[in-house]
Specification:
Length: 328
């Protein structure tokens, strides 16, 4: 029996989230069954905390776990839920009072959010800053003010947008604050791949960083461009021969500059139908489009005059296909 299916390597877990759209952490239910939506008290590396079950009890291979499982202590009772809501209502006031202390100490930091644990045993302040800040005196002041354990955590611009939320340029709630759990890699190369303007104001989100949605369709653009003629390729069109000047992936078309200098838009046939109906190798192009030319008109089997003036049939692929093969 393989290791992945061995009973000794199968564990039961529950998935718990501590913040809306936050990361999901796995915990050991200790032979108890929990359902989604329930609030439970768990032991974490930062102490005892309350979280919401988002993945009901299920089995998982131990090899899929990156860290040892911490236990779920119990189901949160009504008193603990009331306590959690009570401290939650005090977070805005705590943020205002902390802002006053930051101003008194003259620290170059911008407060983002305050967060109590469910029992008020710890109060965490999230802030942004251009550089590292020495806030030891501030922590002592806050501990005396709130009479609880104080933690200050510096975060980045994307984390700030995730905590505060907002509306993106698309008019919808920010992806990071509504459903994205972990930030992926977003690069300027993705914007270039999709033909987007490289203007920072056009491709940046409210956080000032590249928009996360640049990565959503990037793989589709890469795959689509592999099936489309490259820029600079010569194609035969109903208006004559020309060179591909640009590619439009959403419209599945290309812009071709003819020898006359006129630019026309040429739609491309879906690859599946092109391969099924039009085969240059077989010498038959029933719909007039050539799969080798990626949608360009095909002259396979067309009549032409030879040097003696007699009509003959062309063999092999059309002119543009041959050029493509030579370029490859």
């Amino acid at each position: 029996m393989s290791l992945t299916t061995s009973p000794e390597n199968i564990v039961t877990i529950v998935g718990i989230r501590f913040r809306p759209a936050g990361r999901i952490y796995y915990f050991d239910p200790l032979d108890q069954t929990y359902s989604t939506g329930q609030y439970v008290i768990v032991e974490t590396v930062r102490g005892v905390e309350a979280g919401r079950v988002v993945i009901a009890s299920k089995t998982l291979s131990q090899s899929d776990l990156s860290d040892p499982l911490k236990p779920v202590l119990r189901l949160a009772n009504e008193d603990e839920l009331r306590m959690m809501l009570s401290f939650k209502s005090k977070e805005k006031d705590a943020l205002v009072r902390c802002h006053e202390r930051v101003a008194q100490h003259g620290l170059p930091m911008k407060l983002v959010e305050a967060e109590y644990t469910f029992d008020g045993s710890r109060l965490t302040f999230y802030f942004t800053a251009e550089e590292r800040v020495d806030f030891r005196a501030l922590v002592r002041d806050l501990a005396a003010t709130f009479r609880t354990r104080i933690e200050l955590r510096q975060i980045g611009a994307r984390d700030q947008a995730k905590l505060q939320g907002g509306i993106g340029p698309c008019g919808k709630t920010l992806c990071c604050s509504s459903w994205i759990t972990d930030f992926g890699i977003v690069s300027i190369k993705m914007a270039k791949e999709q033909g987007l303007p490289l203007n920072p104001s056009k491709i940046s989100g409210v956080c000032g960083r590249l928009m996360c949605c640049l990565s959503y369709e990037n793989d589709n653009y890469i795959q689509a461009k592999q099936r489309m003629p490259q820029i600079g390729t010569f194609l035969s069109t109903p208006g004559g021969s020309g060179k591909v000047s640009s590619i439009n992936v959403p419209k599945n078309s290309v812009e071709v500059m003819l020898e006359s200098g006129v630019t026309i838009q040429v739609p491309l046939e879906p690859q599946e139908s092109v391969q099924e109906n039009n085969s240059c190798d077989s010498g038959s192009c029933s719909s007039g489009n050539c799969s080798c030319a990626n949608g360009g008109p095909c002259t396979c089997g067309a009549k032409e005059k030879n040097s003696s003036g007699a009509n003959t049939t062309k063999g092999g692929c059309c002119v543009s296909c041959s050029l493509n093969k030579q370029n490859q």
